[in-house]
Q: What sequence folds into this?
């Protein structure tokens, strides 16, 4: 007899397919084997308690294996596998939310609300940017495959391929392809091709690039009826064993060299010869090895920083990977970027550079990126860097648009650069990079006060792998 967990999974996929019927897309072949029922009772879920963030967790008829929760969250009729729900930036009651000419006053704390969805190794973070639902960050009828980022992006009826990122965008009934990054306000009934990087602010600017599909498949790909694969998956799998220790052990010795103003998450991996300066934030599931993080830098969830130096105030966004690289100050490395140098061929990135989300740098000879440049696409040598970069000063002067290689840009370059720089400053600010000992506290300082608690699933019977209905309040 099929147990309740498998029935729930089948129902989630059926609901998603109904939402996607107009796109003639069948999610079922992609879902097969993605969540293995026999794995769902082997991992505990865990949640953080802190006086800095309201706690109100409600779990109903759901599987939560290996998942992490911080802040207010409701999960019903859903399966979450090794997923992070980080609600430390949800809006609070009494706050005002500004959208265009509207100022919306919140009557209650915002909550993440997940219904009829399956999320696999997915990060959910930030807050709803949808003015119609300022108090609910909803995820409904959605399947998110491995290493998806749902960042301030409510979703309703979405299939999100592996390594997809939806950022500050409301998604209705869409298919987002593998390794695509979408920041477009609101999209409906769209099928986004794999490897698309699309940043659209109507009336201001439109950045559109698509990776060469033939080259992209080497790094991340999924086909109907098969599991995701590619070099980036191989890289992650190679380092999985290091995480087993931090999840298996009840108590782990603290690292004495962490400054009092910095924060190292209990579920991060830090291997020898790594140094961490003041105001640094290391999030859960981050991996650091033989690296140096200068003052105010951060390594967000699912980041890997290996044999690299970050001078200071560097942002390594969710899922980014930096191997054998040297970053000067104020460098931003976007979501799910894969920067792979080698011991004899290091990557050097000059001050103030912006590495666009979902950029791949994979080199066999040293590469130097000059200061204050925007970088995107797939870069394997100096010649490809020339095609996939532009100085920020030159970009600011663009008034109408330009094309360069596979990139098409429309609108104001000045507004595009300003939007990125303002956001980078905001990320550093909320992460506590500018803390001076008294003022400008952020996650790096507040997360030191987290305490963690575990919850377990049913171990037998038809409910095996599901969690009992639980309400947790502070």
A:
């Amino acid at each position: 007899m099929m147990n309740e967990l498998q029935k729930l999974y089948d129902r989630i996929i059926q609901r998603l397919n109904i939402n996607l019927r107009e796109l003639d897309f069948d999610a079922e072949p992609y879902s097969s084997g993605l969540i293995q029922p026999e794995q769902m009772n082997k991992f505990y879920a865990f949640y953080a308690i802190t006086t800095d963030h309201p706690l109100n967790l409600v779990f109903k008829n759901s599987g939560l294996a290996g998942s992490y929760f911080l802040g207010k969250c409701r999960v019903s009729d859903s399966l979450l596998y090794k997923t992070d729900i980080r609600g430390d930036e949800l809006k609070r009651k009494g706050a005002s939310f500004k959208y265009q000419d509207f100022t919306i006053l919140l009557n209650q704390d915002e909550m993440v609300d997940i219904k009829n969805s399956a999320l696999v190794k997915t990060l959910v973070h930030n807050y709803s940017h949808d003015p119609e639902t300022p108090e609910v960050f909803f995820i409904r009828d959605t399947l998110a495959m491995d290493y998806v980022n749902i960042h301030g992006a409510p979703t309703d009826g979405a299939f999100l391929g592996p390594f997809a990122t939806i950022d500050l965008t409301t998604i209705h009934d869409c298919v987002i392809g593998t390794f695509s990054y979408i920041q477009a306000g609101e999209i409906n009934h769209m099928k986004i091709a794999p490897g698309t990087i699309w940043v659209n602010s109507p009336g201001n600017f439109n950045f559109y690039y698509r990776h060469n599909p033939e080259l992209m498949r080497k790094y991340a790909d999924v086909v109907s009826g098969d599991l995701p694969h590619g070099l980036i998956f191989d890289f992650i799998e190679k380092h999985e064993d290091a995480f087993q220790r931090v999840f298996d052990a009840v108590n782990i010795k603290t690292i004495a060299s962490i400054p009092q103003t910095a924060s190292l998450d209990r579920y991060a991996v830090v291997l020898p010869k790594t140094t961490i300066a003041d105001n640094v934030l290391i999030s859960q599931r981050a991996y650091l090895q033989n690296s140096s993080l200068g003052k105010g830098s951060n390594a967000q969830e699912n980041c890997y920083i290996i044999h690299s130096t970050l001078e200071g105030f560097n942002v390594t966004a969710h899922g980014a990977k930096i191997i054998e690289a040297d970053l000067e100050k104020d460098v931003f490395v976007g979501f799910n970027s894969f920067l792979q140098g080698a011991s004899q061929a290091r990557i050097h990135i000059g001050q103030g550079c912006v590495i666009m989300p979902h950029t791949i740098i994979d080199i066999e000879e040293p590469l130097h990126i000059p200061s204050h440049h925007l970088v995107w696409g797939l870069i394997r040598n100096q010649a490809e860097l020339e095609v996939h970069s532009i100085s920020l000063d030159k970009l600011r002067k663009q008034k109408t648009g330009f094309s360069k290689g596979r990139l098409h840009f429309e609108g104001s370059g000045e507004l595009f650069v300003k939007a990125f720089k303002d956001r980078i400053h905001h990320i550093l600010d909320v992460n506590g990079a500018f803390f001076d000992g008294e003022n400008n506290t952020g996650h790096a300082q507040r997360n030191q006060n987290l305490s963690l608690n575990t919850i377990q699933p049913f171990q037998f019977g038809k409910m095996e792998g599901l969690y009992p209905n639980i309400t947790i309040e502070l």
Observations:
- The radius of gyration is 21 Å.
- The first helix runs from residue 4 to 19.
